[in-house]
Amino acid sequence: MDLSSLLDDLRLGEKPRPSSSLPPITSLLGLVQQRLIDQTSDASSLVAGVAQIFQTSDRQWLLGPASDQEPRAQLEAAYSSAVCALIGRAALPPCDDVGGTLSPEDYRHVPAIAAQVCAALQALVGRLEAGGGAEKGLLLTVAPHVCVFAVTHFQEKAWSSSSSRKAAQSLQGALLKAGCWTDSAHLLMGDVQLGKEGAGPTSGILGGVLDLLQPHLTRSSWQRCEATKWVFAWTLLQVTRPALAPHLPRMLPPALLLSDHYHLHNCMLGVRCLHHIVLHTPASELRQYNRGDVIYEALMKHLYTSEADVIQVALACLLDLLLVLEKPPSAPSTSRRTPGRHDDVLRLLLTRMEAEHKVALRRVYASMLPAYLDRMGVASCRHLRRLDRVCVGYLEVSDPPDETCRLKVLEGLHIVMTAAWPRFACRVKVLLPCLLRLLVDTSCDTHLQHAVSRQLTAAATRCIALLHAIAPFDLQQVDSSCCSPEVLSCLATVTMTTER
């Protein structure tokens, strides 16, 4: 069979050959696959010709025989192989070094051919739109390949351009339309989220996508292609309850591999994937085979780094993971509570806060402190000595322009005083001078924005009022000569509120 002459006969704008005179579609697809694989030079004309075949050929001929099961399986295999060969023309060059990255110059030829491949695949998907049994089987066969390819190229990365991203987005939209999927999540999960058993195009293709990604997500292979991690992360973040749990054995290991990498962007991507898994997987599944413990150890390791962004996402993930591993410390209990993982994390958090001098890290630690103290409740009594030192140290140091550290520490202090108020009567001598100095410093700081100054003053006054309610003290002894009228007004408000 001469493929070139056949492509000429099927050229757009000319009368196509009748289906009876054409070879079987499986034979043609096999020849197309071979030519796509063998042709080492520019294959633009070949890809354009394949697009014309999909777009202009007779629909019945494209779908092949509709009788026996074996020919149907052969047809689906032939389409799958041809689509793989077509996608392979726009494959990204592999990274030579482990963990290395390629420059945009290395990808200079990818966007143009990727846009052409998108056009060819969109032509095929369009012919399979809203069809019966034959179209359904073919669509579900090629959909995982098309989805992975589209996701690879619609992201704003070094290997894409504005035109290739537009083409990939159009391809993804055509795929959703062809299968009557509402969005990307529905494409992957099908009707699982609706509590129905999907059939045909309403079935999800998550299993097929993971089958394609799995060989490239091993410890030795995932760094060979930069797009692999982004496609995996995009796929995982689309999947929610209850569709995630059955695929957890295939999704958790790559997320752990990413989180364990020394590159900052890989590590953060992995931790975000782990957090998504924690949020959308039943606790029983995470506790099975000690999966939750493995995630916990992986996250705790990140708390010893000096990267603020990593620590922030790790602390946020740990806060949700701890509810899976143990009951909240503030939950009622008939027996004496023994220290648990909540205590370990809070102890490490306070220890790192006390010794930290970098502004970015101090802000991250302070922003997460109120959530952990609120979770601990009265059980935070075990950590009050460290908390005293942290509060004094953070309230004495300004953090312009938003004063994040001071505001968050004041919020955490109010939370713990409310929960463990009987333990604060003996801490008035330590906390009251610190809070009063903060009020005076805030009133005298001319560089502080008015809105921030009001927030600080209100938060400090609230803590002083609560401290005064726990253990009344005489505010009349405050030297009015060194206080502004605003500070004296705040202290008078504290006194009047307590008397009421």
Q: What this model shows, in words?
A:
By secondary structure, this protein is an all-alpha fold. The radius of gyration is 31 Å and the shape is elongated. The longest helix has 22 residues. Helix 11 runs parallel beside helix 13, helix 12 runs antiparallel to helix 13 and helix 17 runs parallel beside helix 19. The protein starts with a helix and ends with a helix.
Indicate the multimeric state: single chain
Largest sheet: none
- Please trace the helix and strand order, writing H or E for each element: HHHHHHHHHHHHHHHHHHHHHHH
| Overall geometric form | elongated
Q: How many strands in all?
A: 0
Helix content percent band: 55-70%
State which percent range the strand residues make up.
Answer: under 5%
Write the topology of this structure.
Elements: H1 3-9, H2 25-38, H3 44-56, H4 59-63, H5 69-88, H6 110-127, H7 133-154, H8 162-178, H9 184-189, H10 206-213, H11 226-238, H12 248-259, H13 264-279, H14 283-287, H15 291-302, H16 308-325, H17 341-355, H18 359-376, H19 384-395, H20 404-419, H21 428-444, H22 450-470, H23 485-499
Helix pairs in contact: 2-5, 3-6, 5-7, 6-7, 6-8, 7-8, 7-10, 10-11, 11-12, 11-13, 12-13, 13-16, 15-16, 16-18, 17-18, 17-19, 18-20, 19-20, 19-21, 20-22, 21-22, 22-23
